[in-house]
Every structure is written in C-alpha cells, then in structure tokens.
Write a structure and sequence with these properties.
The protein is α/β, with parallel strands linked by helices. It folds into two domains: 164 residues, Spore Coat Polysaccharide Biosynthesis Protein SpsA, Chain A, CATH 3.90.550; 85 residues. Helix content is 40%, strand content 22%. It has eight helices and 13 strands. The strands form three sheets. It has a seven-stranded mixed sheet with strand order 3-2-1-4-9-6-12, sandwiched between helices. Helix 1 links the parallel strand 1 and strand 2. Helix 5 packs across helix 8 and helix 7 packs antiparallel against helix 8. The termini are far apart.
Length: 259
C-alpha cells in the first residue's frame, strides 16, 4: 500500500515567479518536491528555496519531453505527481490522491480534469483536456507532442480522478502572447505530420485553416456558457479565439508554401 510520502511532485519552471508559490503551497504535504528550471531570471529560485523539501535543479531547455525525461531520472520515490507551476492541487484533490494511493496500480496512469481560475473566478468550463498527473516512476517516459510533452501510455492503463486541478496562471499577458506564438508553430507542424485519419475532431477543424477560428468563439461563449462567467469568461473565450487564429495562420501559410 502506497502513501503520499511515496510521491514526488515534479514541476517544470521558467520565470514562474507569479505562480510558483501557490503551486508549492498546494503540495507542501510532500516530503520531496523536484523543481526543474530552464534558467529563470526572476525570483523562481528564491521562491523554491523557501521550501526545505524542494530540490531545485537547473537545466538548459531544449524541448519539453527531454526536460521531463531528465527530471524523471532525478526522482527517487516510486510515484510521480507531474505538474506545471500554474497548477494548484486543491485539498479535495489531495485527499483523493491519498485515497487512490492506498490501492494504486503501478500499471495505471491517473488522469485529472481541469478547472480554470481567471482573476480569482473559477470558470464553468475549460478546453484543456485531462492530463496524466499521477504515475509510477519505473518505466515512465515522455514523448514530444506538439508544443508540449505527453506521457507515453505504452503498456499502461488509465483511470480518471474526480477532483480537478485548478489552472491559475497569473503571468503577464505579453508572456502568454509570446508563448502562443511559439506553440502555434509547433502545433502546425504536428497537424501537418499527422495523418488526417488519426486527428480528433478539434484537430480536423484546425487542419482546415479556417473552421476552428470561426467556430470557437460562439462555441465557447454561448454553447459552453462562458458568457455567464462575466469578464473572466469573456477573456478566456477571446484567448481561445486568439490561439486558434494564430494557429490557423500558420496552417494556411504551410498549405500555401507547398509546391
């Protein structure tokens, strides 16, 4: 029977001063925490140093999957809780993880859904798919998937946790815009390299170069009800629209550059 003490929260960081403390506070129950940094120039390292159980390691960034796989080699506990610095583990999710560990299966990756918190308000919906966050370290490996890393599920089953991770990113808007610009290039490359038969419906819309931007704003605001969340809901809907527009631009440019 495993316990919370068998888990190392694992957090990738780069200039996460606006977020890291909330994340670390939410996993302060852990006896070991690994923060793998990509050369932050803000107070990320100073925030990590406030927590005696945090091991702070720096590694130059090359890609998300290489960074994650490097971190896995440093973890000594049998279980990993994979997080981003803008994630918050609620007390309810912590209790669910503790209960899950009592019968946890090392061959199973445990996924968690998300809730977005914008300007202090938890939105009624979000477009981030569930992520595999809790898994046995032995044999774990990450693959590059578009702009981010994805845990390989080869030989593993999956199970879904009930309580969501709270996504609460408070970095400046300019940082978010720059990130989306970089992500769009990688996502366009992924779409171009994936056979159409293997794309899910949202990615099939994105691959057209026009359908996703046309659909996303009314879908987010009306169908998914974000207009009921006031200005935070409107902001999130506009952010989704922006992300789809910039991706569509890259998809169209790739189509037009073909011989």
């Amino acid at each position: 029977m495993a316990a919370l003490s068998d888990i190392t929260p694992f957090i990738l960081t780069y200039n996460e001063e606006p977020n890291l403390q909330r994340c670390l506070e939410s996993v302060a129950w852990a006896s070991q925490i690994l923060v793998l940094d990509s050369g932050s120039t803000d107070a990320t390292d100073a925030i990590a140093a406030r927590y005696p159980q945090v091991e702070f390691v720096e590694r130059p960034f090359d890609c998300h999957s290489a960074q994650a796989n490097f971190g896995l080699e440093l973890i000594t506990t049998p279980w990993v809780l994979s997080l981003d610095a803008d994630y918050v583990i609620s007390p309810e999710l912590r209790e669910e993880i503790a209960a899950t560990m009592q019968t946890a299966d090392p061959a199973t990756v445990y996924f968690a859904p998300f809730k977005f918190r914008v300007s202090g308000k938890v939105l009624r919906t979000c477009f981030m798919p569930p992520r595999g966050i809790l898994y046995a370290r032995a044999g774990a490996v990450y693959d590059q998937d578009g702009h981010t890393q994805r845990l390989s599920l080869a030989g593993r089953r999956t199970a879904m946790l009930t309580n969501p991770i709270i996504h609460d990113d408070r970095k400046p808007l300019t940082r978010w815009l720059e990130s989306q610009r970089k992500y769009a290039v990688l996502e366009a490359e992924k779409l171009a390299a994936t056979p159409k038969s293997e794309l899910n419906l949202p990615d099939k819309l994105r691959a057209t170069g026009w359908a996703a931007p046309v659909a996303i704003f009314p879908y987010a605001l009306v169908v998914r009800g974000l207009f009921l969340d006031g200005l935070p809901g409107l902001l999130y809907a506009v952010e989704r629209l922006y992300a789809e527009v910039i991706l569509a631009l890259h998809v169209l440019h790739r189509k037009m550059s073909k011989p």
